[in-house]
Amino acid sequence: MDAIRDRLRKLHLGTVVGVLVAVYIGVYLVQTVQKNYELQKEIDGLQEDITDLRIEQDQLKYKIQYYQTEAFKEKEAREKLGLQQPGESVLILPQDKTQGQDEEQQKAPAPKRSNFEQWLSFLMGRS
Question: Running DSSP on this structure, what letter comes out for residue 32?
Answer without folding.
Answer: H
